[in-house]
TrEMBL record:
Residues 8-234 form the ABC transporter domain. It is found in: Cell membrane. It comes from the Bacteria. GO terms for molecular function: ATP binding. It is a peripheral membrane protein. Pfam families: ABC_tran. This is ABC transporter ATP-binding protein. It comes from Streptomyces pactum. CDD domains: ABC_DR_subfamily_A (cd03230).
Amino acid sequence: MDNGESVIEAAGVWRRYSGGFAAVRGVSFSVRRGEIFALLGTNGAGKTSTVELLEGLARPAEGAVRVLGHDPFDRRDLVRPRTGVMLQEGGFPSELTVAETIRMWAGCTSGARPEGEALELVGLAGRRRVRVKQLSGGERRRLDLALALLGRPEVLFLDEPTTGLDAEGRRDTWALVRALRDSGTTTLLTTHYLEEAEELADRLAILHEGRVAATGRVAEVVAGHPSRISFQLPEGYFLGDLPPLAPLGVTGHEISGRRVLLRTGDLQRTATGLLLWAREARVELAALDARTASLEEVFLRIATGAAAGSPGGADTGEQPAREGALSPAAAVPGAGTAPPAGAAPPGDAAALPGARGGGRA
């Protein structure tokens, strides 16, 4: 349901903590209406710090953010009723039942879904009378999601939504997120599961050391990284016995004993050339394995600092905003100043009141 309208925008955003540490360094991206956008990165990459700015839990030190056209920090009265937030840890009262927790939260939410509908959405209808302390970790994550969806949000923030879920629960959550997208909900999710990003995300951004290292559709992000072919050299053969590699599209190689790994920008040409050579030489390329680059490989290259850039553009902290997107110059009053004293570090958002949104002031 992408109509080109950006409902989440970050433009040249920085976030600093006491002591001057910059957890977010010039991050820029936008999320269009009805889109699922994944924010990836290793621990400490700046994901949570970035998402908290978008949720309105803190003000950027520099740059600007907009959600549904408003500053989520200064105009939370306009943004919160239209957003839902699933935190990494809900912090529910342990003695309440699942149904009591839903009713308690519904009392603080404008236009809340009926209790039964909310529990049915996340597969907890049969656990409504169970106390929160008796739920499994995966069931608590489902309850988190139910509360985030209570207010029928236009924009949904999901922080590690499937942590603790089994395979079936993860698939059910994916199906629900897709159904929400199809109904027009815009979703920004963080996840450590790269398969989850590949399955769900229309577009994604990979953060590294507080900056956007790669952004775009999964295919676009992966496209600029080489495919791989590996095999074992036949007994008595050496690397120099292979046909000339550069004309086959090979851009690099590694050799360990008899095992050869080739990196190529043209997987079909390289594989065809090698197989024709093997047929003519009447030899077998044992343990032959050919595969295109994966999101996991791109992620690991970025995480280890091996990738200096990527399709969709690397972000050096001064990435130009998309035409028509929010400009850093349009930063809200107070942008460019230090964060408020006592601002919570990443991961402590659960301590802030009303963190889930969905109808609270």
